[in-house]
Amino acid sequence: MSRTSTVELTNLCLIYQEDRILVQEKVWRDQKGIIFPGGHVEKDESLLASVVREMREETGLTIEAPIPCGFKDWINDDGSRYLVLLYKTNRFSGELRSSEEGRVFWTTREEFKRLPVMWNMREILQILDSDDYSEFYWPQGADEGVLLG
């Protein structure tokens, strides 16, 4: 049994200021909904550098001191793993601007509950906002994912 596998590394970051959180209205293939900004780790790029770069590209903001908070992961049909590294920070500078990835805007945590989110962002916010959970895992073939602590 092999202990190695192909892994696609990505990240996502909750940028917040008191009760306001930054979200992105994403359009991807035939899906549309609210997510937290993020993207892929590039070849020869550190994990930290990738999340700083992605936030700058997708939001116009330069973040500082992003805190790793957990993971979202699943196994693809081909057996490879898709891993999303979850970060948060309230330290940032710059002017907010949307990108080709989608419109970014501030909302409150209360308003977020009513937004049309995609990709389990409500569960992701639970990980980012508490110490109760560290992972959202979607087992291969399962109908839904699970929060793990």
Topology:
Layout (H helix, E strand, L loop, with lengths): L6 E11 L2 E9 L2 E5 L2 E3 L6 H13 L1 E3 L3 E9 L5 E9 L2 E3 L7 E7 H4 L8 H9 L5 E4 L7 E3 L1
Parallel strand pairs: 1-7, 6-10
Antiparallel strand pairs: 1-2, 1-4, 2-3, 2-9, 5-8, 6-7, 10-11
Descriptive account of the structure:
This protein has helices at 47-59, 109-112, 121-129, and strands at residues 7-17, 20-28, 31-35, 38-40, 61-63, 67-75, 81-89, 92-94, 102-108, 135-138, 146-148. It is of the alpha+beta class. It has one domain (7-148): Nucleoside Triphosphate Pyrophosphohydrolase (Alpha-Beta Complex), CATH 3.90.79. The two termini are 27 Å apart. The model has no long low-confidence stretch (mean pLDDT 96).
**CA gyration radius, whole angstroms:** 15 Å
The rough form would be described as globular
Q: At the third CATH level, what is the topology name? A: Nucleoside Triphosphate Pyrophosphohydrolase
Instruction: Provide a count of the helices.
Output: 3
Tally of distinct domains: 1
CATH hierarchy class name: Alpha Beta
Order of helices and strands: EEEEHEEEEEHHEE
Instruction: State the end-to-end distance.
Output: 27 Å
Q: Give the proportion of residues in helices.
A: 10-25%
**CATH H-level name... which superfamily?**
Nucleoside Triphosphate Pyrophosphohydrolase
Strand content: 35-45%
**How many runs of DSSP E, i.e. beta strands?**
11
Label the CATH architecture: Alpha-Beta Complex
Major sheet size, sense and barrel closure: 9 strands, mixed
Helix vs. strand class = alpha+beta
Low-confidence stretches: none
